[in-house]
Amino acid sequence: MKRFFGAALLLLTFAVGAYAVDDNQPRPKTPVLQDAVQKTPVQKHSALLNTGDGAVSRRAVSPESIAYLKKLRKGTPFGTNDFNLEQLRAGMGSRRPPTIKGVRLIRVKVGEIPSEWVLAPGADPDVRLLYLHGGGFVSGSGGFYLALAAHISAAAKCAVLLPDYRLAPEHPFPAGLNDCVAAHQWMLSNGPSGASAAKVTFVAGDSAGGNLTLATLLALRDRKLPLPAGGIPLSPTTDWTLTSKSLKTAKDPIISARTMPVFRDYYLGKENPRSRLAWPVHNPLASPVFGDYHGIPPLLIQVGEHEMLLDDAIRVAAKARSDGIPVKLEIWPGMFHVFQSHEPLLPEARESIKHIAKFMAAHTPKP
């Protein structure tokens, strides 16, 4: 059970490289950015990659992260031998309190959706981020993400809303997505202190929550509802046809690719044998890689080198770019699924959260 909980803690559902090892070492210059149409030549703890603007940067993985990945490799990725939903839910349904002092946690109801505000000292309650937790659409909770939300709140000086959207298989697609859309609508006019208009909003999430981040943007646009200023998917699941090459080639230390058909069946329901059209694997709200991204706000996508979902991120970035959307795709060498959430934070995790804050600041209206 202890080993399982560790795997569940690392899973966080379906999300880095640097030179820094301490405050006295040189800080990394720029993230490893990879153009979405490139292959993935990240090897031997460093990378030489073209960025989206044509620049080239080289980054090394921090010694802390090299050691941490080596430790992860000694374990067994979740789902390698079996899939225990009850244990997964028990692990990812736990609360992980913030490690930052003075953070305010405010429980609220968004309609019938249990939710929680996270507000770090000095954060602007009118700059609001909707963070959609991971957990494979079948597990997870806002409480499991309190620590990560606090780090983002402190770095971006924003209020973070964590909704406990409905989970499959009890509530299959699109129930959870509809909750996320409703949460963003509610957040536009409600903040940590009650009813008040937002200055600006953003949507972010990891793994399953990364999928829901993209799907929420598409749904808001299609339903002609107000859009946030930007979307931040971390290690998103984007294709339920399961055709991304990295599902077969990546040596993911966190989660086995064998879990993907299980998560898919729980989330989308079993296929109707009489009609493939009845199974929504190609629905862009279920598989955002098939979406039309015209009219969607800018995206920051972060993903680790050692992820089975790496190509899911690369492919959706390419699709959004082809539709004219500004996309920054960051592929972090040496990193693994949702590395941003592992405590204590690795140097790459600290840097990636700074990039999230910078992205949000760049798209926040100036006074």
What does this structure look like?
The chain has 367 residues and is an alpha/beta fold. It has a single domain (2-362), classed as Alpha/Beta hydrolase fold, catalytic domain (Rossmann fold). Helix content is 30%, strand content 18%. The protein has 10 helices and 12 strands. The chain has helices at 2-11, 63-73, 85-92, 146-156, 175-187, 208-222, 246-249, 260-268, 310-322, 347-362; strands spanning 46-50, 56-60, 104-110, 113-119, 124-132, 158-163, 190-191, 194-195, 200-206, 231-234, 299-304, 327-332. It has an 8-stranded mixed beta sheet, sandwiched between helices. Strands 1-2 form a two-stranded antiparallel sheet. A two-stranded antiparallel sheet has the order 7-8. Helix 1 (2-11) crosses helix 3 (85-92) and helix 5 packs across helix 6. The radius of gyration is 19 Å and the shape is globular. The relative contact order is 0.18.
Quick recap of the structure?
With about 375 residues, the chain is α/β, with parallel strands linked by helices. The chain has a single domain (about 1-360), classed as Alpha/Beta hydrolase fold, catalytic domain (Rossmann fold, 3-Layer(aba) Sandwich), CATH 3.40.50.
Principal-axis shape equals globular
> What string gives the helices and strands in order?
HEEHHEEEHEHEEEHEHHEHEH
Annotation field: number of helices: 10
Return the CATH class. Alpha Beta
Rg over C-alpha atoms, rounded to the nearest angstrom: 19 Å
> For the report, how would you describe the main beta sheet?
8 strands, mixed
Strand element count: 12
* Overall average residue pLDDT: 86
- Classified in CATH, the superfamily is Alpha/Beta hydrolase fold, catalytic domain
Helix content: 25-40%
Q: Please report which band the strand proportion falls in: under 5%, 5-15%, 15-25%, 25-35%, 35-45% or over 45%.
A: 15-25%
Oligomer: single chain
Examine the coordinates and then state which fold CATH places here, giving the name of the CATH topology: Rossmann fold
Number of separate domains: 1
Q: Which CATH-level-2 architecture?
A: 3-Layer(aba) Sandwich
Strand order of the largest sheet: 3-4-6-5-9-10-11-12
